[in-house]
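Could you join me in thinking about how sequence relates to backbone shape in a protein? We need material for that, and I hope you will provide a protein of your own picking. Once you have written the record down, we can walk along the chain together:

…
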Amino acid sequence: MKTPFIVSANYFDRTSPQRWLLRPDQDTPSELNAVYHVLAHNVHFGNSSAMEEGFGCRVVANCESANSYSNEIPDGEFELKFNGHDRFYKAVGSLRKYLNEVKTLRLTKDGKMFATV
């Protein structure tokens, strides 16, 4: 699935206060922008490119739209978690509901992730 934007954790500098990387899909990973926060829409989680995986990034968010600044907090959002390997999930009590796509994805300056479905 080709989408206009790719979003990932900042795998170039994991200690940077700019925790997220944002780039248009047609750009190479070397042409990305490190940003403090992201609001993305119509997101599908997928495998990273070979270049990104070389830096330890296995999964990226493919987004129809994304911007690095927004005051919008979508209604009904929940905290999204990452299993540390290859999947995103919503905690439902002691269970995990794994998600392949979300309607909105909001990534914060402190590294938290929120989503709506």
Observations:
- The beta strands are 5-9, 20-24, 33-35, 38-47, 59-67, 78-82, 88-92, 95-99, 101-107, 113-116.
- Residues 50-53 form the longest helix (4 residues).
- The mean pLDDT is 88.
